[in-house]
Every structure is written in C-alpha cells, then in structure tokens.
Write a structure and sequence with these properties.
By secondary structure, this protein is mainly β. Helix content is 8%, strand content 36%.
Length: 471
C-alpha cells in the first residue's frame, strides 16, 4: 500500500509542511552616546562621548565608522576657560565739587559737557574758576618767595602744560631760602599753617608765620647737608639758619620778614619768581587781577578732565556749597561679582566686553572693590564691585549707558594638545579615549574643557594626529 503524503489534493500542500527558518542575526550593537559624570559640565551642549569596549592590546577596531563621523587634527594651542557676567556700561560714580570762600555763583558748566585743563568749571561773582589736574588740592594761599610744597608743584605742572614758561624748578635735595612777611595772616595768622605738620618734618622753626612751610605730604626733603647749591632765584638774608639734610632754620630779618632755609623734597614745587610771573600772565589771560597770588577758591584741582553729570546749585546760590557732580570722561563697566569668586580676578586682567550689538571689545580690570555688599533682597552671596575699562575708549563713544556681558578668563593652559570634545570616547572600562583615523582606540587623560575643546594627553597622541569626531 502506498502511503500518500497528507495534504490537500487540490493544492498539493502538505498538512505539516517543513518550514525553513533563516538564521536571525542580532542587530548591530549601536554605539550608545553617554556623558560621563566627570565631564558633565564641560560636555553639556558641546557633544557627547561614545562608549566602546577595549580590545586586546588596548585597541578596539570598529566594524564600521558611524555615518555622521568626521575627523579632526590634534592641535597644540593655548586653552582658556572663561565665564561671562552681567555688567553695566556707563560713566564712573560721580564725585561732588564744592565751592570755597565767599561769593555768589554766576555760572556753572552745563550738564553733559566736558571740562578740560584750564577751562572754567564755574564762575564766582563772574570770575572764572578753572580746572587744573593734580592729586593735591590748593589748600592754602600761595604767596611768598620760594614757598615749597606739593600744591606749588600742581600749579607749576599745569601752567607748563598750558604753555606758560615757569622757569627752572629746583630739584629735590636743593635748599632754597623762603621769605614771607612776619605778620602774614593768610595761613592762619597764629603761626599754624595748614601744612605745619610737614614743616615740623623738615625741621622749620617759625618765629611768627609758617606760611613758608611745605605741605604735610611734601616729604622729608632728603639731601646732603651743604652739598646742594642754592636753587635758582633763591634769596639770601641775614638771620637764616644753617642748611642741612631735611632741616630748615628760620629767623626774623629787620624788615619784619620771616626767612627760612628749606630743603626741596620729592614731589615738591617751589614758588620761584619765574613761576610767579607765569601765574600773573595766566591770570591776565583769564581776565582776573594779575596778582601772582593764588588761593583755594581760585582753582579746582581734580585728577583729570571731567564730564558734568548734574548741577547741585543754581545761579545766585552762595559758592560755599556743593556745586556740581562730575565723572571721568572715560566710560567703564561695573560688574557685581560674588564675593567667593572675586579672588580669581586681578587688577590688570584682560577681559572682553560684549556690547548689545554683539561687538566684542577688548578691556581690562581697572579695580576690584574691597567691600562686599549684600545682594538685592538679602538673598544670595554678598557682591563685590569690579570696574572694567576699555583699551580703546573710542569703541564705545556712541554709547552713554548699556547692559553688557563681560567675559573673565578664569584659567589658561598654554601649549597643550586639544581636540573637539565630540572626539572623546567614554571607555566601558572607565576613562576616555580617542579613535584615530586608522580605527585604533587610544586612552587619554583629559584636562581643561573650554569653547568646545578639551585638553588631552597620553601615549600615542601627538600634534597632527587625526582623530574621529561625532557630529
């Protein structure tokens, strides 16, 4: 009996057909992108690492490169890490200019105007009060032959800068004879000049007036006794003391004048006859009486040119009051920095200021505050104010004020090997590696991460090596 295969006679199909199964291959292991915890901050937004297993000999040959892979060369360069903080562009904090003496205010420099050396800042009884540059204000009446002091130096320097011939000023260490009237009351009338402390330092012994004594900060007048020749225009008179290093002697001549021998200190000026003549010519030019004498209310001494920020007085007010608020003419940026972070910022550090239009302008740190102030609302860390000035102020001449971003460099590594962070491979066994263009995996040690680049080092990695990156 013949056994027929079971099935459908019409179709010839077996009831239990044999099914041929094709072998199922495991899907190709995908390269899983991960961000290692140690590089989480640096890699965020810049790319990710690829996890790969090690092979024998510390290498791993990939079956195929990823479709979106590219290559980049290992470069040697300086790598800097920077942080950007909010800042405010504007003028420096205003300072108040106060008037001195008697009289009525008859004119004030307009708000927004710039006042430079020799130009009038305001008027008293319609008399011009000009601006001079210096570090020492005019604190006493400058009168008397060869009067010595730093305030005299301010006058000499400014008149010279304005084009006046002030003659030759005595050098530090030279000894001059100072002659003033014994009944001179311009400096107090009781023998106590505002700078009497400085006179004591120089050993002056006044007999009736110390108006001839230098300012308190005039210095110690170092010089060899008797070795310096008398300064130009120095006068000799009976009754003078013996010159010595840092010393002065005085006496009263028959004419009633106080005669003092004074040693010129570093930073001092001397009211020589030539300087007095220059003062007279300057006074004539300004339309004021040509007396050759200057007092505290005759000029305003500030550190440099100023921009008038606002007026604090009106025409007709008494002059002995706050008159104007002024700022420097150069713009700057102020940045509030957490007190805990300000230690990495130093005066003179190079920074970059990004203006509202996206322009990057070179600047530097001009000052770091020493006082920490509570943050607004009392929340957060105390803040310290950092002041930034521009290398080229013309770059911001069209802006009076604006919010800006200031990039501070917190760390710089010089001459290190760097690759794009997207070239890093997170090794399954731990650590990181790079895949060379030939397909070899090389373990590396990572360092500073900045601007999408990472510092790397390790055997088998050298400048110019081409490595695979992930787009």
């Amino acid at each position: 009996m013949t056994r027929r295969p079971k099935g459908d006679a019409a179709t010839g199909m077996d009831d239990n057909p044999t099914v041929t199964l094709k072998p199922v291959t495991a899907p190709r292991r995908r390269h899983v992108r991960i961000v290692a915890a140690v590089l989480a901050v640096g890699l965020a937004g810049a790319g990710a690492a690829v996890t790969v297993p090690w092979g024998k000999g510390g290498t791993h040959a990939a079956s195929e490169p990823e479709a979106e892979a590219g290559t980049a060369k290992v470069e040697r360069k300086n790598l800097s890490d920077s942080r950007s903080l909010d800042g405010t562009l504007g003028y420096a904090r205003p300072q108040t200019v106060k008037g001195y003496g008697d009289g009525i205010v008859t004119w004030l420099a307009p708000t927004g105007s710039t006042v430079t050396r020799g130009k009038e800042l305001y008027r008293v009884d319609d008399r011009k009060v000009p601006l001079l540059y210096g570090a020492v204000p005019l604190y006493r009446r400058l009168e008397g032959q060869n009067l010595v002091g730093r305030d005299v130096r301010v006058i000499a320097d400014n008149l010279r800068a304005l084009g006046y011939d002030v003659g030759v000023q005595p050098s530090p260490g030279q000894v001059v004879t100072v002659i003033t009237e014994a009944d001179d009351t311009a400096s107090g009338g009781d023998g106590k000049d505002p700078g009497s402390a400085g006179g004591a330092e120089k050993g002056a012994a006044s007999t009736g007036s110390s108006a001839a004594q230098p300012s308190p900060a005039a210095g110690t007048g170092k010089g060899a006794a008797g070795s310096a020749s008398p300064a130009p225009h120095a006068s000799s008179s009976a009754g003078s003391g013996t010159a010595g290093s840092g010393t002065a002697g005085s006496g009263t001549a028959s004419s009633g004048r106080v005669v003092t021998r004074m040693t010129v200190g570093s930073g001092d000026g001397v009211l020589t006859p030539a300087l007095v003549n220059a003062i007279k010519r300057w006074q004539t030019h300004n339309g004021v009486p040509s007396t050759g004498v200057l007092g505290p209310g005759d000029v305003v001494v500030l550190s440099g040119p100023v921009r008038v920020d606002s007026a604090g007085a009106q025409m007709g007010d008494a002059v002995a009051a706050p008159l104007l608020k002024v700022t420097s003419t150069d713009k700057s940026v102020t940045v509030s920095v957490d007190a805990s972070d300000v230690g990495s910022i130093r005066r003179g550090d190079a920074v970059t200021v990004q203006l509202p239009n996206g322009t990057a302008v070179a600047a530097k740190v001009a000052g770091v505050g020493s006082d920490a102030e509570a943050s607004e609302g009392g929340n957060g860390q105390p803040k310290v104010t950092v002041t930034v000035t521009f290398i080229d102020p013309d770059k911001v001449k069209k802006l009076d004020s604006a919010p800006v971003q200031v990039a501070f460099v917190s760390e710089t590594r010089r001459g290190v090997l760097v690759v794009p962070v997207t070239a890093l491979l997170a090794l399954r066994e731990g650590g990181y590696g790079l895949r060379t263009a030939a397909g070899r995996i090389v373990a590396v040690k990572t360092g500073l991460i900045a601007k999408g680049l990472v510092e790397v080092s390790g055997a088998g990695i050298a400048e110019g090596t081409r490595v695979v990156t992930s787009s």
